[in-house]
Please model this.
Amino acid sequence: MTIPENTWGSAVLLHWTVNRRWKMVGNAAQAFDLLTTEWPTTSGTAFFRALQMCSGAGEGLFSPLQARLAFLEAVQEAHIATR
Model:
């Protein structure tokens, strides 16, 4: 799946507790990659909505802003700290 590099304007900074590092997510492609490869859970309404919105942003079905908001909901659902 190819997702365009539509930036969010304001990146989301996540504190990754696994390696105690901060991760910066600046677009739907990066969010989709993180959700599908490193996310701490693979369940939850917000998780699945973020997957749908971030992949759909690449197909023009959703705006980058919609994908960002869905991703932030998944961040809250997974109890990931942000800055």
Observations:
- The chain is about 45% helix and 25% strand.
